[in-house]
């Protein structure tokens, strides 16, 4: 009898959980969206511009886009891009957003003797070389960031800047 009761309790719990998840999924999506966040459509535009720049320059890149909160919004690993660059691209985007500066600008502040020397070992690791850029809208509001990895630092920066520039036009 006790086993049967536990069985029905588990079934009831699963049903209740399912109903709760269904209700949550049906909520107004704006409640899960921060004002100033990059939209999915905007992220696709940024991604398209970055990919175009990479393709035009015959580069194989990993491209990550995060929202205003630093959460991954879009990602692409181009065919043949380095596997190690997956995490690097994501870290570049998150680093740029969390410190509100490009990772190239950050790199200058992380040199020995500078005030942010050693910051790369904090927060689970930060990227302190170029390829992470803030994404700002036409009004200059930060709506996210892009991180690119797979080429030289200059190539990563060029692709990231091409993607980010789309939103400020």
Automatic annotation (TrEMBL):
Superkingdom of origin organism: Bacteria
Pfam family, one: HbpS-like
Matching InterPro entries: GlcG_carb_metab_protein, PduO/GlcC-like, PduO/GlcC-like_sf
Protein name, entry field: Heme-binding protein
Organism: Entomomonas moraniae
């Amino acid at each position: 009898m006790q086993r049967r009761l536990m069985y029905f309790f588990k079934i009831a719990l699963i049903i209740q959980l399912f109903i709760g998840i269904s209700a949550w999924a049906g909520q107004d999506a704006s409640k899960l969206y921060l004002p100033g966040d990059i939209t999915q459509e905007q992220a696709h535009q940024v991604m398209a511009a970055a990919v175009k720049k990479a393709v035009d320059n015959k580069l194989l890149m990993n491209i990550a886009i995060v929202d205003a909160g630093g959460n991954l919004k879009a990602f692409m690993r181009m065919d043949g891009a380095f596997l190690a660059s997956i995490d690097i691209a994501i870290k570049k985007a998150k680093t740029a957003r969390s410190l509100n500066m490009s990772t190239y600008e950050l790199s200058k502040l992380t040199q020995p003797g500078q005030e942010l020397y050693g910051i790369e070992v904090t927060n689970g690791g930060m990227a302190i070389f170029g390829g992470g850029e803030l994404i700002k809208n036409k009004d200059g509001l930060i709506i996210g960031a892009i991180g690119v990895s797979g080429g030289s630092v200059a190539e990563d920066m060029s692709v990231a800047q091409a993607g980010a520039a789309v939103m400020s036009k």
